[in-house]
Specification:
The protein contains 24 helices and no strands. With 513 residues, it is an all-alpha fold.
């Protein structure tokens, strides 16, 4: 061996890094960690929030300082200090110990290295920065992180043209910059297309057939774009618009086919993020529920839940779907157990109303199955907090305004509880209101199954709340309902928390004569 160092650039980069760090006189970084005493107020605040014990400023203030108003300024300073330490700690998370996929680790590392390289470039450590940008480019390409790839290529183009005067390398990087600029613009445009379509469904769950043409137009445009540029994100946006096109008209068979194709396509890639597979599994579960293919639905929902971190917003949505699958398959005890697990989670109260409110509607239907004797096991959570109509309506203000979506089961479950309680006068009043509601808000040809069920409910007072007479009067409506199963109904899937046929069975079982 000749004793020569094979990579002399490495020492130059190290010297630049040392110079940058030394010149900034780095102080000890304020972070959270095992070295901090657990008795300190800042750790008590952190642990209280982490455990779910402290959920409001009032609770935290009382826990840490008692009740004096003079402590409010100290508490505000403590909160500010905790936030600063949490942000500092964020950059030192151990990626190997944290429960993250290979993609998430690569994503985190790419943005960390990109920020570091940019900072080094600004501080004059060009060699260290360019070396880092070269490594970063390889990592970012592996996970198709287009914005990072584009900016990195622009830096390398500038470096080769202006600093090194390397015309050949400049031309090479320039061509790549133009390609990724076109791809980046296409991805931004595709994001906007999908976000525009989905924005109409956050708090309004009614069927929106008039968006079919919008989805079809955007999908066609992206298919043409994919002839010129291609990426995982662009493929996902195009494929999900294709799925959305089927879902807006509730064509579940077509949805299943397109979702299976998308899952098969994306699973070919080793580092593909779960976020590009989860939406298709979600829509598969929805479609299998409507098609009454419950075994396939459970298989898909279990695959979905494996990709979700317990307590995250998406986990609650996945579990919501699992709960509805259980209700549709008459697994009422399982539905109760899923509901109990989710609503008892420490993060449930922190969810956005659009994620939290469906659980209150589901709870009402689970309460009803318990009241009618379909859940025979002990359910202390249900027995200790019986259904109260006024409390229920206060818990679902967003969806109570959803005129053709979640508001329908809200109105129906009220009638069923009043019927179960034997309050026939209140049932009559609610039935009149429900009929007027349907007349005002249902479009021609929409909500066929719901209309059938409302007509069946309207026969209750005319049958004097007697079972045999009710069955005689509702026979034709029940026959119509059976002839248009969920898969053909073209109604929003959120409307029937429990299929109307099963609800009707519960109604009849609760009546005499």
């Amino acid at each position: 061996m000749d004793g020569r160092v094979r990579n002399p650039e490495g020492m130059r980069e190290l010297r630049e890094l040392v110079t940058v760090i030394t010149s900034h006189k780095i102080r000890s970084i304020e972070m959270l960690g095992p070295s901090m005493p657990s008795s300190s107020k800042i750790m008590k605040l952190y642990q209280g929030i982490s455990s779910g014990v402290l959920e409001s400023d009032e609770e935290a203030l009382h826990f840490l300082y008692g009740t004096p108003t003079s402590a409010r300024s100290s508490y505000s300073k403590l909160k500010h200090d905790l936030k600063k330490r949490l942000l500092n700690t964020l950059f030192f998370i151990d990626q190997k110990q944290s429960r993250q996929s290979a993609y998430e680790r690569a994503y985190y590392n790419c943005y960390r290295d990109f920020t570091a390289a940019r900072f080094l470039l600004r501080r004059g450590a060009r060699n260290a920065a360019i070396g880092l940008f070269h490594k970063l480019l390889h990592k970012a390409r592996q996970i198709e992180l287009t914005p990072v790839i584009l900016e990195t290529l622009q830096v390398l183009r500038h470096h080769n043209a202006v600093i090194l005067g390397n015309r050949r390398k400049f031309e090479e990087y320039h061509k790549k910059v133009l390609y990724y600029q076109q791809l980046n613009n296409a991805e931004i445009r595709a994001d906007g297309y999908l976000e525009e379509l989905l924005s109409h469904y956050v708090t309004d769950k009614s069927t929106k057939r008039h968006y079919f043409e919008m989805a079809q137009r955007y999908e066609s445009e992206l298919r043409e774009t994919l002839r010129v540029v291609n990426s995982w994100k662009l493929q996902h946006r195009m494929r999900f618009l294709s799925v959305a096109k089927s879902m807006v008209v509730n064509d579940y068979a077509a949805t299943v086919q397109r979702c299976l194709e998308a899952v098969q396509y994306f699973r070919k890639f080793k580092l593909i993020p779960d976020a590009y597979i989860r939406p298709y599994l979600y829509q598969l579960v929805v479609s299998y529920i409507q098609m009454e293919e419950y075994r396939n639905g459970e298989e898909a929902v279990l695959q979905l839940l494996e990709m979700l971190e317990t307590g995250q917003s998406n986990w609650f949505k996945g579990m919501e779907l699992y709960c509805i699958l259980a209700l549709h398959s008459k697994s009422y005890l399982k539905a109760y157990e899923i509901w109990k697990q989710c609503t008892g989670h420490t993060r449930f109260r922190r969810l956005y109303p659009s994620v939290r409110e469906p659980w209150y509607i589901i709870e009402a239907f689970i309460q009803y199955t318990h009241k009618t004797g379909k859940i025979r096991s002990a359910c202390p959570e249900l027995e200790q907090s019986p259904f109260r109509l006024s409390k229920f309506l206060n818990e679902v203000p967003v969806f109570a305004r959803d005129k053709r979506g979640y508001n329908i089961p809200i109105l129906i479950i009220q009638i069923l509880f009043l019927l179960n309680q034997g309050d026939y006068s209140a049932v009559n009043e609610r039935l009149d209101a429900l009929s007027r509601y349907a007349f005002r808000h249902f479009r021609q040809g929409e909500h066929f199954r719901t209309n059938c069920f409302i007509k069946m409910l309207n026969q209750l007072p005319r049958s004097f709340f007697r079972r045999k007479e009710l069955e005689r009067r509702t026979g034709k409506y029940f026959h119509q309902l059976k002839n248009v199963p969920l898969v053909l109904a073209r109604e929003a899937h959120e409307i029937e928390i429990i299929p109307y046929e099963d609800l009707w069975e519960l109604v009849l079982e609760g009546l005499r004569g």
